[in-house]
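[agent] plan:
  1. take the single chain provided in the ticket
  2. run structure prediction with default settings
  3. attach structure tokens to the ticket
  4. add a short note for the reviewer (M.T.)
[agent] executing step 1
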Amino acid sequence: MKSKAGIFYMRWYAIGSSSKLQIAICNFQFAIFFSALASVLANASPPAPATAPSHPASAAFRFIAPVLTHQDSLFIVASTGEPRFKAKRDSAEAGLIAGDTATLDYLVANRMGGQTARQRHYVENLFKAISDSGRNHAPVTRIATALSGAADTIKVQLLHIGSELGDSTFLPIARQYLRADSLEVRKTAVRCLGSYPSPANVFLLFDGLDKTKDLERQQRLWALSRQPDLKDWPRLLPLMMDSNLYNRQLVRQIVGKACGGNWPMVERYIPQTLDPRARLEWIQLALETSGIDAKAYVRKNAPLLDNYERRFIQSMY
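[agent] step 2 finished; step 3 output follows
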């Protein structure tokens, strides 16, 4: 059955047409359309009631609230950097430090991985605070125990913490990892030897130095620069030709300091013939060495450099 709106639309559609045939066709088409619509509406079944989905919600969209212990709460508050929480942060930190070994066990078990950069730094600070510059050896004991079965990434973090404790009793523990398979573990163990200078470290740092390269060699050179009274400095002279600028700079600094301004003693090791690059390195070593003999060597040999290098050297003395 056609509605009044449908009849009006059909008549409007046919306005402007002078052909009675076109009007008849339009009426016929709309009649078919409304008949089909009425038939569909008459035979439509009522909507089915809503049913719960047969499958459970995806785990990705399920939220499970974490269960926080008292130590978790203290750590989260203490590691925040928000200034307005300073009073609560200081109170939480005092509670963690007072926990002593219990706090250390908590940190090793729960805070060695999956932390933000601020939290990792705060873990280090807590170990240092509890260590109290080596007066409390519990942090060293806990780190030594945790190192034995830890993954390489955790060993790096534990060794780094040990290098910052200010407790030299950690040194024998760090020496055990100088030949570890992991490059990062070896580098961090070498860092510990630089943090705790000792005459016994010198042999260990020289051992295999020629087999290292790049940043691993740089770490060893840095650790050697921290050792007192380095008498074996001539062993470093071949590394003046290292391919990395930062390693060459460290060698010059170590030798310049270790020779004590005695340039004639250093000059004995200079080869008779030098290529331009080697000459530049020896001149820069003389600049790193105190004393008038070293400066005289610079003035004598700087004119042998090319124009650019000569101006560079002259700007430094």
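[agent] step 4 note for reviewer: The longest helix spans residues 20-43.
[agent] ticket updated
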